[in-house]
Design brief:
heterodimer; A: 224 residues; B: 36 residues; 1 helix; 0% strand; rod-shaped
């Protein structure tokens, strides 16, 4: 017994969805780099790292909001239609952020960059000097596993239960990324604006999921 | 989504949501305590 591989079928809706998504990514990166180059006094490499990192985190917020939004209102269903591609793109943008960071901060030493990333900072008991990069690395590995298995072939091959459990790892990955930003970029960037933006994202995502879940629990109890 | 899955999603966010908020609280305390 084996699972037959069927290639992804493309249609007009998928092309439009991906086109809008790619345009959005390009616009975000373009605006971030343009505005950043006007106010940022550091190097262009760090600006690029921040652009890709923040873009990936914003995309993850969108991915996570789609589920509860659809449960509130079916008019959001078109967003759910090709969420897999949005998820894969989120990983790819995050991967570029990871590669740039690895090259810039660990690529010019005498030891392997990945080994340097894993061993150079061992301040696990300090919050302000915590090796936040490791949080991002674990989250990126989770996003990779999800992106690699985002196909009906893997859904059938792994069984829906295991596949769903694997994809629910996006929730701990989100928590890891919030702490990655809090203990990383926001330790050097002290402007309250960045803190407000991050807090807004956390409040929106967690409130949407909790309210949607609470409503459904209430409805389920009423039905039984 | 089945009732079982809905329960899992809700419980997961009940546990993980506060961990996210904790990061924001930590940043707020840090900013407040280091104000000149």
């Amino acid at each position: 017994m084996s699972v037959k591989y069927a290639p992804v079928k493309w249609n007009r809706n998928k092309f439009v969805y991906d086109g809008v998504m790619l345009l959005g990514i390009a616009l975000y990166l373009g605006c971030f780099l343009l505005l950043g180059s006007l106010v940022w006094l550091g190097s262009i490499e760090v600006l690029l790292i921040r652009a890709f990192g923040s873009c990936s985190l914003l995309m993850l917020h969108l991915v996570l909001c789609i589920g509860p939004l659809v449960r509130f209102d079916t008019r959001f269903l078109p967003l759910l239609y090709n969420r897999r591609h949005l998820g894969v793109a989120t990983f790819l943008v995050g991967f570029v952020h990871g590669l740039l960071s690895l090259g810039y901060y660990h690529g010019f030493g005498s030891i392997n960059p990945l080994l340097s990333l894993l061993t150079s900072n061992t301040n696990f008991l300090s919050l302000s000097a915590f090796p936040f990069e490791l949080l991002g690395l674990v989250a990126l590995v989770i996003l990779f596993l999800m992106a690699a298995s985002s196909h009906d072939f893997w859904l059938k091959n792994l069984s829906p239960g295991i596949w769903k459990s694997l994809h629910m790892l996006v929730y701990p990955a989100y928590v890891l990324l919030i702490w990655h930003v809090a203990l990383g970029a926001l330790q050097s960037e002290r402007s309250v604006l960045y803190l407000i933006v991050l807090a807004l994202g956390v409040v929106v995502v967690t409130t949407l999921h909790l309210v949607a879940g609470w409503r459904e629990q209430h409805r389920d109890r009423g039905a039984s | 989504m089945t009732r079982h899955h809905r329960g899992w999603h809700f419980t997961t966010w009940l546990l993980l949501g506060p961990v996210c908020w904790l990061a924001i609280v930590y940043l707020l305390i840090q900013r407040w305590s280091t104000q000149p």
